[in-house]
Amino acid sequence: MTLDRYAPHLRATLALGLPLVGSHLARMAIGVADTVMVGWYGVEELAALVIATSFFHILFFLGMGFGIGVMGLIATAIARQDETEVRRAARMALWLSIMHAVVVMPIMWNSEPILLAIGQEPIVASLAQDYLRIAGFGMLPVLCGLTLNSYLAAMERTQVVLWITVAGLPVNILLNWVLIFGHFGAPELGVRGAAIASVSVQTLQLFLLVGYAAWLPAARKFQLFRRFWRPDWADMRKVFALGWPIGLTMVAEGGLFVGSNVMMGWIGTRELAAHGIALQLGAITFMLHLGMSNAATVRVGQAKGRNDTQGMHDAAVTVTAISVIVAMLAVALFVTLPRTLVGLYLDASNPETPALLEIGANLMFYAALFQLTDALQVIGLGLLRGVQDTRVPMIIAAISYWLVGMPVAYGLAFILGVGPAGLWLGLVAGLTVAAVLLMRRFWRGHARGDWTAEPAAV
């Protein structure tokens, strides 16, 4: 093993992955801006935002598999110079994303009874529904934007994705300031203002992505939007077969975190608000790994298209090493500066702040615990998606998060009386099992040249 062997992979992975990391962080920053500014507005509103965004993300996760799954498919098709497959796969992923957005909108419109049924406080459930009735209109631009991100990433055109995402951040902050608090003569809308700001930015970003994808000279040969209304049923089935297991995998993982939000709501509103802050800080570091996971999907997909087993192995080693280093840095940050990080989300003049700061700072220790395993599980998923292996990872996720993570969280928090820390230890347990099983599947099969794990055969 020599550094020279891995140096080209390191350069290629960073060139591809860093803009993806940046775009994920910028997208996350929009959510952070919403959380911080709504946190300044009120504790009940912050708790409602935590629950509402969790509800939204579960439905988003269910539909995002089409946009994520198509990334490896397109990367492989490009490596094989199959222009027709690139166009058909990307187009059908967009179709499926649009269909999903339409189907889930009524669920968000009528979310209050669901939230009440799972034990949320009436005021929190009502405010959350107010948010979701507006935010639901952002599902279509978010899912279609994700698919176009994958399309461009597979062509290694990630820089523009980064800049389009970054451009949305100041717009979101300005709209939040105006609409949440009622500045410049606008009505004071609270959580509804945050939802309007988010949907506005998501729509703007989709228009910019569509314009760039249509203009890009290197992409014109694929003719993505030419006769967009024409279906290709074979490719739709292929994208659906890849995407639905990814969606359910994301739901299984996201459901673990949403379940922790719901159970934390049973403990108390303060605990839920502090939990939301700690989770979002953990999610910021997760975006770094998610960008590397996307890079892993493209790099491994390209190697698959070339039938290059050694290249696949070396690319996988490189991206895994990068993520492990980032995880270790995050652990150090969370352990040494917990109060400083949590305090960024809170208004010092609010009488609730000292209690929230104490709870949140304690939870940051547990957020540090799962940094490494969270990194490894998402990298494992990215590597497996690059070889279009999605069904067994779905089963692994279901077992890890719902047969291990959720029971451990509930048992520790409520049966043994550990409280909020018990919920977080359940998260650690589920992510650790997932990381071990997913990495084992890739390294004991695909990395050794086993190309047989196609979606239909898994």
From TrEMBL:
Name of the protein in question: Multidrug-efflux transporter
- The answer to keyword Cell membrane applying to this record is yes
Coiled-coil intervals, chain numbering: none
As for subcellular location, the record says: Cell inner membrane
Lineage: superkingdom: Bacteria
* Cell membrane in keyword set: yes
Organism encoding this protein: Paracoccus aurantius
Question: Keywords in UniProt for this one?
Answer: Antiport, Cell membrane, Ion transport, Membrane, Transmembrane, Transmembrane helix, Transport
Q: Which sequence ranges are marked TM in the entry?
A: 55-80, 92-111, 131-153, 160-182, 194-218, 239-260, 272-294, 315-337, 363-383, 395-415, 421-439
Topology with respect to the bilayer: Multi-pass membrane protein
